[in-house]
Amino acid sequence: MSSENNESRMEKTVNSLKEEYSTIRTGRANASIFDRVRVDYYGTPTPLNQVGTISIPEARMVVISPFDKSLIAAIEKAILKAELGLNPSNDGKVIRIAIPPLTADRRKELVKQAKATAENYRTTIRNIRRDGNDELKKQQKAGEITEDELKTETDKLQKLTDKYIDSINKIFDEKEKEIMEG
Prior knowledge:
4 helices, two-stranded antiparallel ribbon
């Protein structure tokens, strides 16, 4: 197991956190909160952005224009089923969704959720470090690397771990700010 592999795993972990955070609703309209919404498109669960255009004409308004107008009811149903706390309404052509401002309690709840998520990702990074260290110790026992190389590689892995945990902390801080100012 090389240090490039460890770095690649850590990078994927951080990207996964960013992806998960993009689906947390703040007080502003954001098309990415619909990323996990699947619409029943002729029996196939299809991502919302593949059956319509999602636009943000105002800070607290989302408009979804279905490519096929007969899908309006299915899109509304999928949004309600996704439990995003949003109430879609349609005029026969497009679906409008007003994004309600978040209450102070809901903001605190979302920050708490984001904090727990960040901690889970920090743990994943630490587990990658542990796996890397175990691999290095095995290599040293097998005579593939020297005691000095073990120390050097372990230090490098720790620096990598610190870098990615710091990255997770920054991403959390930004998300917390975004939720609180909503």
